[in-house]
Design a protein that fits this description.
mainly alpha; globular
C-alpha cells in the first residue's frame, strides 16, 4: 500500500514539473517584466487557475475543513463571501490598478501619496509574509501530508517533531526552486495544472466521504444521513459562539475578504499580469464561479469527518488528513497527496514570488540601487527570496499547537489587512487626502490591532467586542481619520489618476451581468442552508 501511494505521488508530482518546464522553458526570466509580471501576457484561464490555486492551499484544505469539523457549514463564509470581493475586484479595483500600470500595491501608494507611504506599506507586507503567511503555508502543508501519506510508516521516522521539520524543509526547498528560478508565468502555469487536479481531488474526497457515511449505499444516502444526524452542522447561519457569527459577514469577514482578494500582493499580482483588462475581468469572475463550489471540497469533508470520527479524539486540523487517508484507495491517496503538494507549492511559491517582487522593484530598484540593471533587479529578488524562504522554513514548525489554524491565520492577517485596505480605498476614492494621513493610518492601524490582540489590558476589549466587529470599527475609524485630515490639511493639488498605457483598458462586456449573477448566487446559497 505504501509503495503504491509513494509511486503515484512521485509520478503526478514529476509530471506537473515536467509539463511546466516544457511550456515555460523559453520564457523571459531575465527582465523584471518577464520574471515578475509574466510579460503581461496572462489570459483568463491562467489568471483564474493561478488565483484559485494561490488561494487554495493546505491552510484552506486543512484549516477550513478543520474549522468545519468544529463549527459546521457557517465557516463557508470564507469561500462564499469571497465571491463578493472578487466581483469588487473585477468591476472596481482592477480597472484602476491596470490603469496605473503597477507591479505592486505599494507602487500604487507611491503614485497616489508619496515614496515614504510606499516604503511603509512595503515593509508591512514583507514582515507579514515572512512571519505569518509563508510559515503557515508550510506548517499546514506538513500537517496535512503527515495525515495523508502516513509519513511515519513511509519514512520510519517516529518523532513528530523530526517529521514536521523534515516535511517543512523538503516542501519549502522545492517551492523555492519553482518560484525563484521560474518567475510568475512558471508559477501561474504550474498553478493551473495543479488547480485542475485539486478540484478533481477535492470532489473525489467528498464523494468517497459521503459513501463512507452511508456504508457504500450511495452519495445521496450519505447526504441524507448527514442531514438527519447533524442538522446543526449544516446551518449556514453562524451562532455567536462560533468562529464566524452571521453578523460578522457584514463587518470584519467582508473586509478581510475584500483585502485578501483586492489588495493582497500575493493574490492579485497575477491580475497585474493580465494581457488586457477584459482578460483580467474574465479570469477574476471565473474564479468567483469556482469559489461558489468551494464549500463542497473545503467545508463538507470537515462535516463528514465530524460524523465519522467525532468520538475518536482527533484534533480539528488533523481531521481532513485523517479522512483522506481512510476513505481514499491507495492509488488515489498518492495522486491526491501530489495535488496537495502542488497546492502547498502553489501558495508558497506565489507568496515567495510576490515577496521578491515587493523587495526587488520597490526597495532594491526604488531605494537601494536606483541605477540597477534588469538582471541585477531579478538577481536581488532571487537572493532575497532564499533569505525569506529559509526564515519561513525555520519559523513554520514553531506554529505547532494552535487550536484552529484557520482562525489563527485570519486573526493574524487582520492586523495588516485592515490598515492597507483602508489606505488603498481612500486613496482611490479621494483626490485631496494627503500622504501624512496614509502614513498615520498604516502605522497606527497595525499598532492598535496588535495591542488589542496581544498586549494586556488592551486584550480585554475582545471580551466586550467580537473580533471581526473590532477590526471593522478600526477600519471605519481609519477611513474617518484620513477623510478628516483631508479636510483639515488637504493636498495642494488634486490627484489625477493618469493612464500608464501599459494595458488595453477596454472592459469585458459581460463583466457587470456576470457580477450580478454571482452576487445573486451567493445570497441564494445562504438562504438555502439558513437554519
Amino acid at each position: 500500500m505504501h509503495a503504491l501511494t509513494l509511486i503515484s505521488f512521485l509520478f503526478f508530482t514529476g509530471l506537473v514539473a515536467l509539463i511546466t518546464w516544457w511550456f515555460t522553458r523559453r520564457d523571459d526570466h531575465s527582465s523584471t517584466r518577464g520574471y515578475f509580471l509574466a510579460g503581461r501576457s496572462l489570459t483568463f484561464p491562467f489568471i483564474a487557475g493561478s488565483l484559485l490555486m494561490t488561494n487554495l492551499s493546505t491552510e484552506q484544505m486543512v484549516g477550513l475543513n478543520g474549522a468545519a469539523f468544529t463549527d459546521g457549514l457557517s465557516v463557508m463564509a470564507w469561500e462564499v463571501v469571497a465571491v463578493i470581493a472578487l466581483v469588487a475586484l473585477a468591476l472596481f479595483f482592477l480597472p484602476r490598478f491596470l490603469r496605473s500600470g503597477i507591479a505592486t500595491i505599494p507602487q500604487l501608494l507611491r503614485i497616489r501619496f508619496d515614496g515614504t507611504t510606499q516604503l511603509i506599506c512595503n515593509l508591512i507586507f514583507l514582515v507579514a509574509y515572512a512571519v505569518i503567511l509563508l510559515p503557515i503555508i508550510l506548517y499546514s502543508g506538513a500537517v496535512g501530508l503527515q495525515g495523508m501519506l502516513d509519513l511515519p510508516g513511509l519514512t520510519g521516522i517516529q518523532s513528530d517533531t523530526a517529521l514536521l521539520w523534515g516535511t517543512v524543509w523538503v516542501v519549502g526547498i522545492i517551492g523555492s526552486i519553482y518560484a525563484l528560478f521560474g518567475g510568475l508565468r512558471t508559477v501561474a502555469f504550474s498553478d493551473t495544472l495543479n488547480g485542475v487536479g485539486l478540484l478533481i481531488g477535492g470532489f473525489v474526497i467528498a464523494y468517497f466521504g459521503l459513501q463512507a457515511v452511508s456504508d457504500g449505499n450511495g452519495v445521496m444516502a450519505g447526504w441524507e444521513m448527514l442531514k438527519e444526524t447533524n442538522p446543526d452542522k449544516l446551518n449556514s447561519i453562524g451562532s455567536s459562539e462560533q468562529q464566524v457569527p452571521f453578523a460578522t459577514l457584514f463587518t470584519g469577514v467582508l473586509l478581510i475578504n475584500l483585502f485578501y482578494w483586492t489588495t493582497n500582493q500575493q493574490i492579485i499580482q497575477r491580475t497585474f499580469a493580465a494581457k488586457t483588462l477584459a482578460e483580467g475581468q474574465k479570469g477574476v469572475l471565473l474564479t468567483g464561479l469556482f469559489k461558489l463550489l468551494g464549500p463542497l471540497y473545503l467545508v463538507l469533508p470537515g462535516i463528514i469527518a465530524y460524523h465519522l470520527y467525532a468520538g475518536d479524539d482527533i484534533r480539528a486540523d488533523e481531521a481532513y488528513g485523517h479522512l483522506v487517508f481512510n476513505v481514499l484507495p491507495p492509488y488515489l491517496t498518492g495522486f491526491f497527496a501530489a495535488v496537495m503538494v502542488g497546492a502547498i507549492l502553489s501558495s508558497f511559491n506565489s507568496a515567495l514570488n510576490s515577496t521578491t517582487t515587493l523587495f526587488s522593484i520597490d526597495l532594491y530598484k526604488g531605494l537601494l540601487n536606483k541605477d540597477a540593471t534588469e538582471e541585477q533587479v531579478v538577481k536581488s529578488g532571487k537572493i532575497f527570496g532564499w533569505i525569506m524562504a529559509i526564515a519561513a522554513m525555520t519559523i513554520a514548525p514553531m506554529l505547532a499547537g494552535q487550536d484552529s489554524l484557520f482562525g489563527y491565520l485570519q486573526k493574524m492577517n487582520a492586523m495588516y489587512f485592515i490598515p492597507i485596505l483602508a489606505v488603498v480605498l481612500v486613496g482611490l476614492l479621494t483626490k485631496r487626502v494627503p500622504a501624512i494621513a496614509a502614513k498615520i493610518s498604516l502605522i497606527g492601524g497595525c499598532i492598535v490591532i496588535g495591542l488589542v490582540y496581544f498586549v494586556p489590558p488592551f486584550t480585554g476589549l475582545l471580551d466586550v467586542v467580537q473580533n471581526f466587529h473590532f477590526v471593522a470599527i478600526v477600519f471605519v475609524a481609519l477611513v474617518a481619520l484620513m477623510l478628516l485630515l483631508g479636510k483639515i490639511s488637504p493636498r495642494e493639488t488634486a490627484w489625477v489618476h493618469e493612464d500608464a498605457r501599459k494595458v488595453d483598458l477596454t472592459p469585458w462586456k459581460g463583466a457587470v451581468p456576470a457580477g450580478i449573477v454571482l452576487v445573486i448566487l451567493v445570497i441564494s446559497i445562504y438562504a438555502a442552508f439558513a437554519g
